[in-house]
Design brief:
The protein has 752 residues and is mainly beta. Helix content is 13%, strand content 38%. The active site is at residues 375, 460.
Amino acid sequence: MNLKTVLILLGLALATILALVCVLLTRERTPRRCQHLAPEQEDMEDGQSLVFADLTAEEMSQVVLYLQGHLGVPLVDASRAKPSENCIAWVDLQVPAKAEVLRFLDGGGARPPREALAVLYFGQQPEPNITEYVVGPLPRPAYHRDVTVQKYGGKVPYHRRPTLAVEYKQIGGFLKSQVFPSAPAFMQQVMEYDGANLAVVAAAPRGFQSGDRVTWFVLFQNVSGFFVHPVGLEVLVDHSSLDMSQWAVSRVFYNGQYYRDMVQLESAYVQGRVSVEKVRRAPWDGDFSSMKPRAPATALFPLQFEPQGPRYSVRNNRVLFQGWSFAFGMSVSAGLRLFDIRHKGERVAYEISVQEALSVYGSNCPAGMSTRYMDGSFGLGRYTSPLVPGVDCPYLATYVDTHALSDSLRPKKRKASLCIFEHNLGSPLRRHYSNLQSLYYGGLVNSALVLRSITTVGNYDYVWDFIFYQNGALEGKVQATGYPSSSFLHGDGLRYGNRLWEHTLGTIHTHFVNYKVDLDVAGVKNSLVAHDMAFEMTRAPWSPEQQIERPRLTKKVLDTEDQAAFLLQSKMPRYIYFAANSKNKWGHQRGYRIQITSSAGDHMPEASSMERAISWARYQLAVTRRKEEEPTSTSIYNQNDPWTPTVAFADFINNETITNEDLVAWITAGFLHIPHSEDIPNTVTVGNAVGFLLRPYNYYDLDPSIYSHDGVFFTSEQDFTACEINPLACLPKTASCLPNFPPFTYDGFRNM
């Protein structure tokens, strides 16, 4: 072999070695893909939580087929039903009785039959009415029973029915075809009406007495964010008749003046007797109300990821996380709900659920001054929004689809309408730095599990959270965002809010949210106990001539429902808890404390003719005996007949004994909203969050989070840069990986 060949071979060998070195070095610099580990808490449950599971699309369809074939009356699709026809308004899960469920879950009893609750509107009957049927067993229905009288003490009058989407559409057609054409000059010259440039929003309730179905409709420019673009025109429509040809206009309001109807308004306008305040036509994007960013994107906002995969598990309707387990569901009317909530394997609550969201408005315009929205009637679950990854929830959250059947004969799939994620709150759950005597640091990251849904009911968006902390605390929270409702600014409008734009009055209103919390602390039977403080005067034992004021603990058992009903603005004991019949290691009754976060405005005066329909909002907290016949604090039928409420919560409180009983806490949180210029383009969540905490109070012998694997502890004498001493020192290795961000998808604009 000659020298030239040897040199060539040596060169090739050297090049190969250099290439391999480069590959190895590059591989070292390129982060590996994150490897997912199985959650530590293995789900051994055999499907028991499915007793609480929402109906599947197939089950809903089977209920519809059964009702169509067994009621002996024609059923029209609710999406096109006339008021004078019969239809299925909605179908939901019929939650079994608690006693049956507990026998099944805890006592080895039979699984309760799976049933549906169907709400039907019977307009084509001699006495039109609303009827509720329980249909079962699912998935193959064989029976139905009318439960209306059992639940409400009688038939539900037809005028109380929640308004279907098709009825709003029919009223829109009535306005467009009959009402607006009766004032052609006014509509063309003042409103610049072209058949599509105006949007309407309905006020509620609808009238002043039982039987009324008379609704104020407010007109806005039909642009993005139209809720803050009023044009000054409001129309009162009487749609109480089941014969749509009998619908009529009862009154018209424009720029501070009332008219008998549009014909009278037109006549006055033509004669020059109308004070016209012409609104500049807004572009399609709404101009000031547009949510389109005013600045270009620059550096990406921080993102959260799980280096070793989710530490929670979701199977069907059941979630496990760090000692927590619970079942979740979505009610068509009330929205998000939890069942069988356990910590460390022990049930702490049977049910925690949203009940109602109420808004009471003020204005000098007719619709605004008469609006008291009870959003459960519209459907807090029905209007659950598809969630946007990265904004509504962390990008890598677990997204859950749900199904609903309302206003239709066919179930609809709501993609990504729930999300579940573990959230590092960026602060310690607990910590201590010791620089006295011994030198050490101990702490625990505050990482919690969040279950979230977001409801968009008209102008408002409600972000509903249930949050599970590692110390055994559970939080229920709601944040309000969306657009403020507005009125046309005229006259003394500034008595009822702030000016938001040229013609826009942001109207003052209250928000109230009610929750049902069925705590079962170390068993079903609990008592309600209040702890607080008082100062006492005493002489210093070592110096009797000196006086000391010292705080002491006060204790009281609240024996009756009347004692446990705390009016909204009244003073409530700062520590109030459900006490078990068992004690912890230190001799204290095991308990869970209720802590409310609220800045509620004033409740409607009890003298009001409609106050009983929302009487749950009288109380920041009311604890009653749990009764199967008192499943909810309100009714979907209260909105359209608050003067004769189908359910009046005040009747639940009748001074019954609540010592050593199965108890329910009804919690109300809220805030006063006076819209201001920073509510344009729309309202932010900051400062608009309320809710409650459930916190262990002597329930454990010590803080259970001390057993969390997330704890950090090291002393001055230890090598805190070593992984085996300090897990944070491992982060450069364990967290230096590439998370898998799936492609962005969103289904919010499909099947509208």
